[in-house]
Specification:
heterodimer; A: 950 residues; alpha+beta; Mth169, Chain: A; Phosphoribosyl-aminoimidazole Synthetase, Chain A, domain 2; seven-stranded mixed beta sheet; B: 254 residues; alpha/beta; Rossmann fold; nine-stranded mixed beta sheet; 24% strand
């Protein structure tokens, strides 16, 4: 084994080291003087000194800025500490493949493996405790990495596997034994295991290990959405199937002809322009991101990108959206429970994982949100979504025929992520970090990118009949689901492996990333395999679809699984769940109205939820593919908060797709019904605010909830599902797909901390003409500012109450009949070009929206609250200014368009409440005519930009 | 005359090929793209093309350093073909990752004894996507920027900082420099988004036929791609189109 260390030349600054130094200082260790970072390459193979020199000079070290050394680590300078960090054995090294290729390209033949590590040189007065803290908090995540001690070997010796069939003694187990088996190994309950026991009793044998695990995966919450499909008792009411009776009912009732494929494929599909179709999916990846934020988030994004890719006959990803929920980044270090990563580290890791993967994929990240709440401390929520485009004729799921071949394409299979699906359905505990290491993976975007490039060519050539992704549950889920209607026979030893030594069980259950599954006509397979090979992507025949409706697996001709598809897919008994819903009574705040509301406005602007996310957004490529029409950052300095994003997927067309989201868990503490209603309203208002309309809006739901076996958690979930369904139906916006992630709780010794009820509503709308788009920044002095919509005394769950330490009880409600009329009128006015800027009102109400419009546009604004239409008597200015009532907009209209605008808005609630001016202040007058806010825009903007200005 | 033909080279991780193709098509060229493997295997030849493009992306993940692995591949496997392409008067455009590739392959600036220039990690130590103002050096022989004095374009990279010894910097044919909105080419971050020496954003060879830049002209072809198109007075095209029009016109004329 040869060791090479590459570092920035000592005479030059080292930006990676400087960034790490800043992070160390943030930890409170101010004595660190200098930090330098080296890359270490461990090369296994028969390499001569001359070859090593060539590899270093031509490949590993940049001749201008870097220096290299071959051999043992150079001596650590006096007063410096060296820490070398490497991946744990079995963790995929994401750069191994490309570095090996680079070495072979140099003409070096004998390279067997490459491993990388990183070496940190820290100088300054640092105690052993400091070093330990820096290692554990910043450098090493023990789930995937360790500090290298001297004499460690780079690579594991190749392991071998010899076949032996594992059977599980099931038939003789009593209820106690079944319960234990279910809890410890399979995440199945007693009823479910009894059903399985009955099946095997009938066929007169015990199951093999993978038969049982295939059943457990197929029947997992993650794959089967057992809670949403269960029979739920809520008081006197029985809900037979929550999914069908809520979100799916909306789609069925609305029956939109442009909905091409809903709730059956890997993502939902709508018509775009008659020639093309759009599909959209948002996935959650919470538990992996809790223990390894970078890997968890990157594989979460990698996974959701494969959903549109595996929809219909395959679509091209055109945009990503990301919504995260974390505990606040300033959470005190000393209050952090053991086994939990600090939220700042989780935020940074998740952001980096999503950016590194999304940027490498060349998919713009155009939209997102970050929500902060203490209760996400042990269990963050990470949601990634992808939109794809495909020719309309490729929109429907394919259907294989018996005799078609099962082909796996893309990355190789390793030991990664075994049990990811059942892990996703389990609760996190302090031990999760130790026990779940094999559930966490690191993605490799380039493997996925090259697979996508060649797959879309294969689709154009019609080389396969059906496609799906290998996601949670790996081949087990992908093959099992695709073959449900036909049957299949797979030879597991044919699956290409990353390294030897995998058992048949590991091959079948592995969740290695970047793999897709195809059904291929036998006569096309040669052309398909060689097309893939021409772009360095493996495509391997691993079996054949049959007509016997059985799942048959063989390993080196030994049968290891033979299950009836009917039982596998339809044998799961519908579970019964109990739910209760008891409204919580929160205390109402009791404080006098402050005479000057500027300070509170600044505090809301500077709250974690409202503040600028520019630090995150800039590190995502939101321009790649050239389709960006309205960007996430907008305004005179390109740094104001845009509402929805607009993307033009076909560069020579003027049609666009609008992407928006709605989320506000705070209202859920009062009533999840109105939280869900508000989320739908928010997503729709963002679409309207940028110039869209309600004609063709498709919704996705993502529920992240606590343990549904606890009746109070389930009661809230039922309320939320009903809320979003009722409102979406009234607005005429169908759901096309969705996802639920349950069991989001973190168990400490004392209690189980449940995340806040979290519902993300994602929306995608078709826009006929992107040149009609409207951005939120104020455009010109002298223009009028209107408020559209009615303000109520709805401060329950608001930021303003949050500032004053209260939750309150009046969460914002939605009147969708009035709301739809209002949105339709506003769309029509915008279509006519009568609106110069528009911003939807959400967190922080009128105050925040006005401030954002003014400082984004670099123009002053004056507002008079006495003119704002109220839905009830409100005596306090702070209530009007900060109420978070739904279905409201601030709109900028040129004085010459006043009459036409007012005419267009006839019949809905609106009023002119102010104007744009050339000044540099936001002035707001209260109902009594007294000034309640007089704030320089620079101060407002600074308050908004400072918190995440990292 | 025969239609101008442009070839875009793809490799694993290339991701700006479609918008680069659109830009050249808008400028009147026929466009093909080919995977690097096809060129290496000899299935596709450079001989039928007048313009060669290495577009943006993260080729081979930018593992080791941006563009390094593709650069070696070009140098070691296609060096002769590219040399002949240059000698017969072809145009080469490298954008973002393509810039990194051409520099590290020793194609731009042309290298006789070892790479002297590099694009290293941004001073901010992070990938950034933002719009930048560029001033075009009017003395430059670059055929791609003839008649253009300033541009506004997006950047999106983590490794865009030009670094070299002073003597090397002095010999460069600088085409574009980062500037502030008033045109000051000494402006610091974020106008110079990566800390590039002398605010250099793009360079060309002595003939002006090989040109590379970090910003993305192919992302600003239509006016509605501008970040403030909803506010500012519309222009007929995006600033980036001129680069592609110049290239295609030059081929047509020569």
């Amino acid at each position: 084994m040869s060791r090479v260390e590459v570092s920035v030349k000592p005479s030059l600054p080292d930006p990676r080291g400087e960034a790490l130094k800043a992070d160390i200082r943030d930890l409170g260790i101010g004595t660190v003087q200098q930090v330098r970072v080296s890359d270490v390459y461990l090369l296994e193979g028969d390499l001569s000194r001359k070859e090593l020199e060539t590899i270093c000079r031509q490949l590993l070290a940049d001749p201008v800025v870097e220096a290299y050394s071959i051999g043992e680590a150079p001596p650590t300078p006096q007063d410096a500490h060296a820490i070398e960090v490497a991946y744990n054995p079995g963790v995929m090294d994401p750069v191994e493949e490309s570095v090996s290729k680079g070495i072979r390209d140099l003409g070096v033949k004998h390279i067997d493996s490459v491993k990388t590590a990183r070496r940190y040189y820290l100088s300054g007065k640092l105690s052993a405790g400091d070093i330990e803290l820096i290692s554990s908090k910043l450098l090493v995540n023990s789930v995937i990495q360790h500090v290298v001690t001297s004499g460690e070997k780079a690579a594991l010796p190749p392991a071998s596997y010899s076949f032996s069939l594992e059977k599980v003694e099931l038939l003789t187990l009593d209820d106690g034994g079944l319960t234990r088996l279910g809890r410890e190994k399979l995440e199945l309950n007693l009823d479910e295991l009894k059903q399985i026991q009955g099946y095997f009793a009938k066929i007169g044998r015990n199951p093999t290990d993978i038969e049982l695990e295939t059943l457990a995966q197929t029947w997992s919450e993650h794959c089967k959405h057992k809670t949403f499909r269960s029979r739920i008792r809520l008081g006197e009411k029985v809900i037979d199937n929550l999914l069908k009776s809520t979100v799916m009912r909306v789609t069925e009732t609305l029956n939109k002809p442009w909905c091409l494929s809903t709730f059956k494929d890997n993502s939902g599909v709508i018509d775009f322009d008659g020639r093309y179709a759009l599909c959209f999916k948002v996935e959650t990846h919470n538990h992996p991101s809790a223990i390894e934020p970078y890997g968890g988030a990157s594989t979460g994004l990698g996974g959701v990108i494969r959903d549109p890719l595996g929809t219909g006959l395959g679509s091209k990803p055109i945009a990503n959206t990301d919504v995260f929920c974390f505990a606040p980044p300033d959470f005190p270090h000393d209050k952090l429970p053991p086994g939990i990563l600090h939220p700042r580290r989780i935020l940074k890791g998740v952001r980096a994982g999503v950016a590194d993967y999304g940027n490498r994929m060349g998919i713009p990240t155009v939209n997102g949100a970050i929500v902060f709440d203490d209760r996400y401390l042990g269990n963050p929520v990470v949601m990634c979504g992808t939109i794809g485009i495909m020719p309309r004729e490729a929109a429907q799921m394919g259907q294989q025929k018996p005799g078609d071949l099962v082909v796996v394409v893309g990355g190789r299979t390793g030991r990664d992520g075994i049990h990811g699906v059942t892990f996703a359905s389990a609760l996190l505990t302090g031990e999760s970090e130790e026990t779940s290491a094999s559930s966490v993976q690191i993605g490799n975007a380039i493997t996925e990118k090259k697979m996508i490039d060649v797959l879309l060519k294969a689709r154009e050539l019609g080389l396969y009949r059906r496609i799906t992704d290998c996601g949670g549950g790996g081949l087990s889920s992908a093959v099992g689901e695709m073959a449900a209607e036909t049957g299949v026979k797979v030879n597991l030893e044919k699956v290409p492996l990353k390294y030897s030594g995998l058992s048949y069980r590991e091959i079948w259950l592995s969740e290695s990333q970047e793999r897709m599954l195809l059904a291929v006509l036998p006569e096309s397979v040669k052309e398909l395999v060689s097309l893939f090979a021409s772009e360095d992507v493996e495509a391997t025949v691993i079996g054949e679809f049959t007509s016997d409706r059985r799942l048959k697996l063989l390993y080196e001709n030994n049968p290891v699984c033979d299950l009836d598809m009917e039982f596998l897919h339809h044998g799961l008994p519908q579970s019964e769940r109990k739910a209760v819903w008891q409204p919580v009574k929160h205390s109402e705040p009791d404080f006098a109205e402050p005479p000057d509301l500027a300070e509170d406005l600044k505090r809301i602007l500077g709250s974690w939820n409202v503040c600028s996310k520019e630090w995150v957004i800039r590190q995502y490529d939101h321009e790649v593919q050239g389709g960006s029409i309205l960007k996430p950052l907008t305004g005179i300095n390109n740094d104001g908060p845009g509402d929805a994003a607009i993307v033009r997927p076909l560069l020579d067309s003027d049609m666009g797709v609008i992407i928006a989201n709605g989320i506000n868990p705070k209202y859920g503490d009062i009533d999840p019904y109105w939280m869900a209603a508000s989320a739908v309203d928010e997503a729709l208002r963002q679409i309207i605010a940028v110039g869209g309309n309600l004609n063709r809006v498709a919704l996705l739901d993502n529920f992240s909830w606590g343990n549904p076996e606890k009746p109070d958690r389930l009661g809230g979930l039922v309320r939320a599902a009903q809320g979003c369904a009722d409102i979406a139906l009234a607005y005429g916006a169908p759901f096309i797909s969705g996802k639920d992630s349950l069991y989001n709780e973190y168990a400490t010794e004392k209690e189980s901390i449940c995340i806040p009820p979290t519902l993300l509503i994602s929306a995608m709308a078709v826009m006929e003409d992107v040149s009609k788009a409207v951005s939120m920044d104020c455009k010109k002095e002298g223009d009028l500012i209107y408020i559209v919509g009615t303000t109520y005394d709805e401060l329950g769950g608001s930021h303003y109450y949050g500032l004053h330490g209260a939750t309150g009880n009046r969460a914002p409600r939605v009147n969708p009949e009035k709301g739809k009329k209002l949105m339709d009128s506003l769309s029509a006015a915008m279509e006519k070009g009568l609106v110069k800027a528009c911003h939807d009102l959400s967190e922080g109400g009128i105050g925040v929206a006005a401030a954002e419009m003014a400082f984004a546009g670099g123009l002053g604004m004056t507002l008079h609250l006495d003119k704002a239409p109220l839905g009830e008597a409100i005596t306090r200015n702070d209530t009007i200014l900060f109420s978070e009532s739904n279905t409201r907009f601030l709109v900028e209209v040129a004085p010459e368009d006043k009459q036409r605008f007012e005419q267009a808005m006839k019949g809905v609630t609106f009023a002119a409440i102010g104007e744009v001016n050339k000044g540099d202040k936001l002035d707001i007058y209260g109902t009594d005519g007294k000034k309640i806010v007089a704030a320089p825009l620079a101060e407002l903007k600074e308050a908004w930009q400072k918190p995440l200005g990292w | 005359m025969a239609k101008v033909k442009t070839l875009i080279i793809r490799a694993p991780g290339t991701n700006c090929d479609a918008e680069a193709a659109f830009a050249f098509e808008q400028a009147g060229s026929a466009v093909d793209s080919a995977h690097i493997n096809r060129l290496v295997a000899g299935d596709t030849s450079l001989s039928g093309y007048q313009i060669l493009v290495i577009p943006g992306g993260f080729t081979y993940g930018d593992d080791i350093s941006g563009g390094r692995i593709l650069a070696n591949e070009l140098k070691l496997k296609l060096g002769g073909d590219i040399q002949r392409f240059i000698e017969r008067g072809g145009l080469i455009l490298g954008i973002c990752n393509g810039f990194q590739v051409l520099v590290k392959a020793g194609i731009l600036p042309p290298v006789e004894n070892g790479q002297r220039l590099t694009l290293s990690g941004n001073d901010s130590n992070r990938f950034e996507c933002r719009w930048v103002y560029l001033q075009i050096n009017q003395e430059s022989p670059c055929i791609f920027t003839k008649g253009i004095s300033a541009m506004y374009l997006p950047i999106a990279h983590g490794e865009g900082k030009i670094m070299a010894e002073k003597e090397t910097l002095e010999t460069l044919n600088v085409v574009a420099r980062y500037a502030d909105e008033k045109g000051d080419t000494k402006a610091g971050y974020p106008h110079n988004p990566n800390g590039s020496a002398d605010n250099i954003a793009g360079i060309c060879d002595a003939t002006g036929r090989i040109f590379s830049l970090m910003p993305h002209p192919e992302r600003f072809i239509r006016w509605t791609q501008h970040p403030r198109w909803t506010k500012e007075a519309p222009k007929q095209h995006g600033d980036g189109l001129g680069i592609f029009l110049n290239a295609v016109d030059w081929v047509k004329r020569s």
